[in-house]
């Protein structure tokens, strides 16, 4: 088929009139008519815009049939399905050539496009692409990505292609574009900070990856604790007589979670210390109200012990670190946390002294004596 016949064929497949196509590429209707009847041919400068408007490759426009080695493509396709997209970076220029040839012959194959994108970005990061400038590399990555975003229906494939494209942008210094792409990943797959960490790790920027990983972890820890607190409050407000007891189940759950967070290293991050001890203070008060004095005493002792551990930490921080929380609380913030803990201890003592059993319960007096709180 001639180029004119191809223009007509693909125009009709897209449902465009000659006027539609003419307006899209900035020529007259007469020009389109001449091309389709082989009276004339488009100028070379119009070939790319014309192919883009018809959503085909330039090779397809000229009816050029690639010699595609189907067996080679299928072998790569099978290999791709077994790869860890975030870790494996083994593609070669020869494999990329096979993928490119296949994609050129099948420009709407989103699976092939996702493989081309992954292969190209891997080679960019590994320095295997020497014959293309930055703008050419970005254009090629965007071509593959746009095919995936337009034709792919599998959410995982779309998400992975966004991650790979962002990784390519970041390596090429286009950090704003990388951030925009990561921002389009649905939250169900993880927050933007996490995927920035994955991208940095894949690009071997380990310090940046660790900083992003820690920030993402701290953010999740904060919101998980908020959800647990909210669930407990809902039970208390909704469940009438049993509401407070149900809320305490959630607060016990929260306490286990905070203990897990604080067990990661010897550093005591102020926000988590604050969360744990304000929780304990509230639990003392609520258990007194529920007349569960054994549990009230248990939580009070945890609070008193925790305050002592934090004071020891303030006196000797050398060599202590946290696994996933930042070790960068200011001295002012640390002293502020100490004053808050002092207040929670005082409040808990007051709650216990208001117990009807206070005067006759030797356990309370022994606890106060143990921690010099008489």
Strand and helix layout:
Layout: H1 3-14, H2 18-25, H3 29-36, H4 47-54, H5 58-61, H6 70-82, H7 93-105, H8 110-125, H9 134-151, H10 155-171, H11 175-182, H12 192-202, H13 206-238, H14 243-262, H15 270-289, H16 293-315, H17 331-353, H18 362-370
Short synopsis of the structure:
The chain has 374 residues and is mainly α. It contains 18 helices and no strands.
Structural descriptors:
0% strand; 374 residues
Structure notes:
With 374 residues, this protein is mainly α. The chain has 18 helices and no strands. It has helices at 3-14, 18-25, 29-36, 47-54, 58-61, 70-82, 93-105, 110-125, 134-151, 155-171, 175-182, 192-202, 206-238, 243-262, 270-289, 293-315, 331-353, 362-370. The chain is elongated. The N and C termini lie far apart (98 Å). 28% of the residues are buried. The model is unreliable at 64-68 (pLDDT under 50).
Name the beta content range.
under 5%
Mean of the pLDDT scores? Answer: 87
- Based on helices, strands and strand pairing, what is the structural class? mainly alpha
Percent in helix: over 70%
């Amino acid at each position: 088929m001639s180029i004119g016949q191809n223009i007509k064929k693909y125009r009709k497949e897209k449902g465009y009139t000659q006027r539609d196509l003419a307006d899209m590429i900035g020529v007259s209707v007469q020009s389109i008519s001449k091309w389709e009847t082989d009276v004339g041919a488009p100028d070379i400068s119009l070939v790319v815009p014309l192919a883009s408007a018809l959503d085909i490759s330039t090779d397809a426009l000229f009816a050029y049939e690639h010699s595609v080695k189907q067996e080679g493509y299928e072998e790569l396709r099978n290999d791709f399905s077994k790869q860890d997209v975030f870790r494996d970076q083994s593609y070669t220029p020869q494999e990329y050539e096979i993928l490119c040839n296949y994609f050129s012959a099948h420009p709407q194959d989103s699976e092939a496009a996702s493989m081309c994108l992954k292969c190209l970005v891997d080679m960019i990061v590994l320095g295997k692409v020497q014959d293309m400038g930055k703008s050419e590399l970005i254009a090629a990555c965007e071509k593959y990505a746009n095919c995936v975003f337009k034709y792919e229906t599998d959410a995982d494939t779309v998400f992975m292609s966004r991650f790979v494209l962002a990784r390519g942008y970041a390596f090429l210094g286009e950090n704003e574009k990388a951030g925009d792409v990561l921002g389009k990943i649905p939250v169900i797959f993880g927050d933007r900070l996490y995927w920035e960490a994955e991208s940095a790790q894949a690009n071997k920027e380990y310090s940046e990856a660790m900083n992003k990983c820690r920030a993402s972890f701290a953010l999740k820890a904060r919101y998980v604790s908020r959800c647990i607190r909210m669930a407990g409050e809902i039970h208390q407000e909704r469940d009438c007589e049993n509401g407070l007891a149900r809320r305490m189940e959630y607060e016990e759950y929260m306490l286990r979670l905070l203990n897990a967070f604080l067990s990661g290293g010897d550093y005591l991050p102020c926000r988590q210390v604050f969360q744990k001890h304000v929780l304990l203070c509230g639990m003392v008060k609520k258990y007194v109200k529920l007349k569960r004095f054994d549990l009230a005493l248990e939580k009070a002792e945890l609070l008193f012990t925790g305050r002592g551990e934090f004071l020891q930490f303030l006196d000797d921080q050398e060599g202590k670190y946290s696994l996933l929380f930042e070790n960068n609380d200011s001295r002012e913030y640390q002293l502020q946390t100490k004053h808050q803990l002092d207040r929670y201890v005082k409040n808990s003592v007051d709650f216990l002294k208001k117990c009807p059993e206070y005067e006759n319960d030797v356990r309370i007096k022994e606890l106060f004596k143990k921690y010099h709180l008489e």
